[in-house]
Amino acid sequence: MRATRVIVFNMDESFGPTLRRTLQQFPAVRVVAEVDEPAVLPHVASQFSADVLILHLDPAPEVVLPIAGDLVPLHPSLAIIAVSESTDGQLILSAMRRGFSEFITKPIDAEMLGAALDKVAKKSDDAAPTGQLLAVMGTAGGVGTTSITTNLAVELASMCTGSVAIVDLDYRFGQVATCLDVAPTYTIADLAQNPEELEQHVIDRALVEHSSGVRVLSRPTHFVQSENITAASCVHVLTTLLALNEYVVVDGPNRYDVGASSILDLADITMLVTQLTVPSVRNAQRILQGMEEAGFNPDRARLLVNRLSKDTGPLSISDVEGTLNKPVFATIPDDWPTMSTAINLGETLAERGPKTKIRHAIRDLASSLHQPDQAVSREPAKKANLLSKIFADA
Asked: How far apart, in whole angstroms, are the C-alpha atoms of residue 210 and residue 153?
């Protein structure tokens, strides 16, 4: 699938969630950059490879129009779609004369926007397909995000014909390279330092290949390097990797903050890893609520329950599904002896315990992501009494 890469320009913070919610209705749309300063727009258009610029003109169209208009001759393949509450004929005429593709008045008509995006997509049909970005996000520390991420990437690599890359977004304490027992020479900090020079030979030099075929982009070697990685540079690295791999699996974002929005914008699927504990489920509830308020499409989020066993306590899968009003997409059984041994030895579950239930569960997860048409959907259970009482007191 060839994703439609979009840059969003918006100075009106209150309109942001509405705009994101509208764009996320379209499965093939990926937001690669968000801009709120007109002066920065030319630099972003040059730095990020995009198909469409969604240009929200309000509240200052007289400032935005000239700057955006200058982009047309510089980036002829970038379609500009202007959005405004104004129906002034002179404004619309000015935008079209500058070479904008469309002018859409608010409230945005999703069908009209979809038709405009389809036109762009048809023009780029001959371009190389774009890989899928899978973000694995923990709802609490120690829920097993890294273990799931690394083993999921390995299982996907055994199923697909293209290449798979894994990226460690825990810039300070990430352990992806340790779990796979690889020793990278370069890290994400090196690529983020010069995003404008990300050619394929630079990428190939930075990623270290695991015996499974998965290519690893490690966290920075030193703490101080993490301070220089911006959300924009990270997204640029990921966008470049998506052009070269069938799957890019990221361990992170490791917390729900402003920087996480850039990753969630780009992700095809965000997997929230939780356990059957009140703190973990409560955090999952807050993250899902925050995503909804910010306009993210809830259909792109999946719930994973890790370390499931008969002795997990009074909480159940139905408790979680009822409280979060969302079905659990997959469960991973608790097998700490196998997993801890694999982590300490730098082995995958395919190596350490190929016939174990935990390995088969992660392989089934990979299969359901790689072949979603064969996955069985589940409806969320009705809200259970135990968590209802706990969360009512929160």
From this structure: 11
Query: Coil, strand, or helix at residue 169?
Result: coil
Lowest mean pLDDT among 19-33, 60-74, 104-118, 372-386: 372-386
What number is the average pLDDT over the span 88-111?
96
Q: Cα separation of 70 and 219, whole Å? A: 38
CB of 274 closer than 8 Å to CB of 303: yes
Residue 83, both tokens: 């959005």
Which residues have C-beta within 8 Å of that of residue 194, sequence separation ≥ 6? none
In this structure, the chain runs to a length of: 394
CA nearest to 163, candidates 220, 203, 197, 121 = 203
Spatial separation of the C-alpha atoms in residues 218 and 79, rounded to whole Å: 35
pLDDT band at 305, cuts 50/70/90?
very high
- The structure tokens listed for 54 are 């969604």
Sheet containing 328-333: which strands, arranged edge to edge?
208-209, 215-217, 164-168, 247-251, 132-138, 269-274, 301-308, 328-333
Give tens-digit pLDDT for 143-188: 999 999 999 999 999 999 999 999 999 999 999 999 999 999 999 9
Q: How far apart are CA 216 and CA 202, in angstroms?
A: 14
337-346 pLDDT tens trace = 999 999 999 9
Q: Which two tokens stand for residue 203?
A: 């990428």
By CB neighbour count within 10 A (0-12 exposed, 13-18 middle, 19+ buried), where does 291 fall?
Answer: buried
Task: Note the helical H segments in the chain.
Answer: 16-23, 41-47, 61-69, 71-74, 89-97, 110-123, 145-159, 176-179, 188-193, 200-206, 223-226, 231-242, 258-266, 278-293, 317-324, 336-345, 349-352, 357-370, 385-392
Q: Please give the Cα distance from 301 to 24 (Å, whole number).
A: 12
pLDDT band for position 386 (50/70/90)?
Answer: low
DSSP assignments along 292-332, one per residue: HHTT--GGGEEEEEEEE-TTS-S--HHHHHHHHTS-EEEEE
What tens digit of pLDDT does each residue of 227-253 get? 889 888 899 899 999 989 999 999 999
Q: Is 207 left (phi over 0), alpha (psi -120 to 50) or beta?
A: beta
